[in-house]
Amino acid sequence: MFQTVPEGAPVLTAEAMRAAEERAIAEGSSVAELMEHAGTGVADWVHRLAAGSEVLILCGPGNNGGDGYVAARALAHRGVPVRVAALGEPKTEAAAQARAAWGEPVESLSGETEAAPVLVDALFGTGLTRAIDATLAETMRRLVAAARLSFAVDLPSGVDADAGNTFGCDLPGYDLTLALGALKPAHLLLPAGASSRTVRLVEIGLGEIDGPVRTLERPGIAAPRRDAHKYSRGMVVVISGPMHGASELAARAAYRAGAGYVLLLTGGLPNPPHAIVRQRWSEGALDDERIGAVVTGPGLGRDDRAREKLDAALASDRALVIDGDALHLLDLDMLKDRAAPVVLTPHAGEFDALFGAGQGSKIDRALDGARRANAVVVFKGADTVMAAPDGRVTVAPMGNSWLSVAGTGDVLAGAIAAMLAQSSVDALGAASAGVWLHGTAARMLDRCFLADELADALALAYERAR
Ligand SMILES: NC(=O)C1=CN([C@@H]2O[C@H](COP(=O)(O)OP(=O)(O)OC[C@H]3O[C@@H](n4cnc5c(N)ncnc54)[C@H](O)[C@@H]3O)[C@@H](O)[C@H]2O)[C@@H](O)CC1
Ligand SMILES: Nc1ncnc2c1ncn2[C@@H]1O[C@H](COP(=O)(O)OP(=O)(O)O)[C@@H](O)[C@H]1O
Ligand SMILES: [K+]
């Protein structure tokens, strides 16, 4: 299971959406006009996919419900059989107008409401601030499950738009969520993000939308230049520890993500692949000017020897990827005055250990971590969030769930290091490119795989990155 969302698209909180709406209104638009765009945009999608089947639209009391009434009118106008079931009377002026303009009967939404082959959920959007009633949630689940095709208008009803929580409620799975005007964090973050396999944007006339939080996009990395040599393509050093496998995976991944030279500082025996150059760890091993990036953490251990290696990596003036065990040894103060880029790649457990449990959404927490660490933070999980200290954030679509296997994090660390070492992009760009390659490789495999195979599949993903 993975997710399709628009690439490189801005992600706005509910408050930022309201500000964008106010700007549009100040420039001459109106809520009714925006709602007309939203509802007809939804109707376009439903009309295209419903193929003449009966459509049931569930309308809530706010403007999300208003969008639903507009969609109902637009669909009926095109000859699509439509029923509307509402949760009470509209509470906003625009929604009341939209309901009046619909002009056809409105059923009262209840446990008795009859299902239809196509379901459109326009109950709640960005205005929801608390859990929806359990009986309503049950009715919604029943109607969505009974439909052949289900749409969520703006958001699946029952989610907190900013945090991606569901207030403890189980959401049904929708075929398509139509994000109005812009994506919201709940389209991407767990648990809400997992309820929609596909998210599409519907323009509603808000004009140019911008913001520091964007979805992941194809990195646009190219084949080696004609005059490339192994060092110009990027030299990656992986510092090994007692668990050799992890650092071997990172080293292999660095090659498959395009690095020209990969050196593994190891105490282990030479192993295939022979392309990985092996040397014993020594003081001064990181002095080589040609080193583009250093990976430390995978299989490093947490003893004094591991600490010594981490200290040496931090003392070097090379770009660093700090993962796994090294995240447990790291003191954030050590990063304060570092000029060369640092990318930290914690999963949720490592993140909590490093930054504390914290408040806010995964986006807020990643950003707070990045600022405190003065480093790019790749907060991993099915919903990976990357944040830079300057406030920019990249959110990846829900990843391929076959990634939930040992060693895939080591592969990611190697891929990010290759990007840091070979490209001219900044640390957030390198982290994003690494996450893109890693996610794309997993999608291409889309089966039960070993982390070794994932590392090799990075090369196939690279082909698609141009
Ligand atoms: N921001 C924009 O630019 C636009 C937003 N539009 C739509 O407007 C939506 C937001 O509309 P609203 O702010 O009216 O909010 P919603 O329609 O999302 O829901 C808020 C309404 O539900 C009630 N409510 C909240 N929590 C409840 C609960 N747990 N149980 C029962 N009732 C509850 C509130 O009292 C309020 O009446 C967006 O998601 C989008 O669909 C569009 O109409 C067009 C323009
Ligand atoms: N259910 C999932 N869906 C998508 N991606 C996942 C899932 N679980 C884990 N991942 C991804 O797999 C990788 C696992 O990394 P990590 O937890 O460090 O594992 P390890 O230390 O064993 O290598 C991360 O990139 C993470 O984002
Ligand atoms: K909705």
Structure overview:
The chain is of the alpha/beta class. The protein has 2 domains: 14-214, YjeF N-terminal domain (Rossmann fold); 235-463, Ribokinase (UDP-N-acetylmuramoyl-L-alanine:D-glutamate ligase). The protein is 36% helix and 16% strand. β16 (385-387) and β17 (393-395) form a beta hairpin. Bound molecules: ligand NAX, adenosine-5'-diphosphate (ADP) and potassium ion.
Topology:
Elements lengths: L13 H13 L4 H20 L4 E5 L3 H15 L4 E5 L6 H10 L4 E2 L9 E5 L11 H13 L2 E5 L20 E7 L15 E7 L10 E3 L19 E5 L4 H13 L4 E5 L11 E3 L11 E6 L7 H12 L3 E4 L1 H6 L12 E3 L3 H8 L6 H12 L2 E4 L5 E3 L5 E3 L12 H15 L4 H19 L5 H13 L3
Parallel strand pairs: 1-2, 1-4, 2-3, 4-5, 5-6, 6-7, 8-17, 9-10, 9-12, 10-11, 12-13, 13-14, 14-15
Antiparallel strand pairs: 15-16, 16-17
The structure holds ligand NAX, adenosine-5'-diphosphate and potassium ion.
Organism: Sphingomonas plantiphila
Protein name: Bifunctional NAD(P)H-hydrate repair enzyme
Pfam families: Carb_kinase (PF01256), YjeF_N (PF03853)
Would you kindly provide a brief summary of this structure?
The chain is α/β, with parallel strands linked by helices and 466 residues long. Helices cover 36% and strands 16% of the residues.
Specify Rg, calculated over alpha carbons: 25 Å
The CA-CA distance between the termini, in Å, is 24 Å
Q: Give a short account of the largest sheet.
A: 10 strands, mixed
Strand tally is 17
The helical percent reads 25-40%
Helix count equals 13
CATH level 3 topology of the largest domain:
UDP-N-acetylmuramoyl-L-alanine:D-glutamate ligase
